[in-house]
Amino acid sequence: MSTELERAFAALSSDADRAGLAPPQSIRREGDRQRLTVALAGAAAVAVLVTGVSVGARLVAGPDPSPTVPAVTPGPVSPAPPSPSPSKSPKSAVPVVPGKSSPSTPAPPEAPDIPDSIPARAFVRAADAPGEGSTPERQGAGDHDLPGFCGRSYEQRSATGIRATQVMFYKSAGSPADSTPKSALYEDVIVFRGDGAEKFMDGLRAAVGDCPGEEGDERNVSLGEIGVGDDSLLIERNNPAMTDEGVPVGDGSLHRVYFAAIRVGDSVAFLNDTGWESGSADRADTTHLARKAADRLKAWRD
Questions:
Q1: Cα 257 from chain centroid (whole Å)
Q2: What is the pLDDT of residues 249-260, one digit of tens each?
Q3: What is the pTM of this model?
Q4: Which of these, 141, 143, 181, 291, could form a disulfide with 169 (CB 3.0-4.6 Å)?
């Protein structure tokens, strides 16, 4: 058996010499290189396979919800910036006191409504007369006109809300029961809209000032304020005295009547103290009645 093996190796050696085979060391180096190439190729294939699997897994699972945050090396703590100082209020700002509401402009008081009628208590009464007064009587609309002053307009008719008139006669104190009156007092109470009452007083002053005289020897004299109500004016109208028959006395004496206007708020009381027949009215009586009229008007409108 050994003899046959030796003959086989001898034949193989002879064929190898004819074919020019490489020496055994070269053959071993070549085998090592082939094995290394195969190993590297296998490793690369495995790496590609692992990478593909990893990418596919990320595509299926979606983005990593908790990305890795790089670590930060703690350093010294910076001091906090100072708080901004409170801004200053402008000089025009109104300081607000705790517990108190901010100031506001008070609303102007509302004017009283125009009444439907004017009651008797708005006028002077018999007890207000300087002597013995009669029971006052209401006059119908248009039965008594306010005095004219050279045709000057002052009545403010367009601003008149309501107006009423009464007449009261009064005697001198202690007069006999059958004696004639000392004077007749006509009184108008007028309630105006808006500023009609103020304009009435202004217009009356202007009218009297523009009309010192009218027909004949008649004269109008402004005697100034009476000092009652919110505003007032006393006026004297005079002319040469005449007898009851209308004959001039001719002694230079004058016949006098008086007008008094008193304003209280939006209302005016206008008094016309006429005297009686040829007898003059008394200024002191008119002033007394004007004060009473102011009290009555104020008590009603307030």
A1: 49
A2: 989 999 999 999
A3: 0.64
A4: 181
